[in-house]
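Standup notes
- DV: blocked on the single-chain target, sequence here:
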Amino acid sequence: MARIEDQATLAAGPGDLAHERAKGLDAAFRFGAGALSILVVLVAWELFARSGRVTMFMLPPFSAVVARIYTDALGGDLWINLGLTLYRAMIGFVIAAVGGITLGALMSRIRIVHWFFDPIISVGFPMPKIAFLPVIMLWLGLYDVSKISIVVFDAIFPVVTATLGGIASVEKELLWSARNMGASERQLIWQIALPAALPQILTGLQVALPISLIVTIIAEMAMGGYGLGGAMMTASRFADSRGVFAGIVEIAIVGYALIKALAVIRGRLLAWHPETVERS
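- DV (later): unblocked, structure below
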């Protein structure tokens, strides 16, 4: 019996090895293709900036921008601005995530809550919520509370709609079976509907996360003070072109890192889901 199992293991070994090798090659190719496209853009930026077609003020070379980022990092300004921006964006994102999932779950199960909030969500989702920034500035001032509030106000809509859509797509037979087994409405929402709707909820969160960062930067630009957006506006006022482009590069790196981190979390949370199994 042991010999049969050993033979089966040996027979499966080469196929598994080939599969793992194919996965590694595919991942390396995708990473290489992505890195190559970014490298081409950066090289083109450097060459065009040094070609004499534009002034250094209009477009500083990428190497000069990197040198500015390095100087800011050594001086500590980069870490202060980066920390404040991430703090505002992530606090707003977490509040929007918790509030949006809770509201979406309640709207899906309680008729009066759906009746009250559905028109608000329908009207507010396509509207540019950043237009309320002057109102929030008047009401809450120019400090962190107002910046976080506009982030929550803007990022909560995709989370609510994704939660509603995810719960609506849950198989009715699953809910009926749970109800017949004595599950309460609370158990239906938190133990059945939300876990089944998790893929769409995570998609909503993946939409809300970059929105949170974008709105934070815009709020910092409008209100001033510390933060990546505020630092860019300060550099612009003093005609510091390298400082402005340094802010753009920093925001791009932060946004990419946040999106990749959330994608990794999605893969871990959906290890049981077909979309993850197909990739593995």
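- Follow-up: The chain has twelve helices and no strands.
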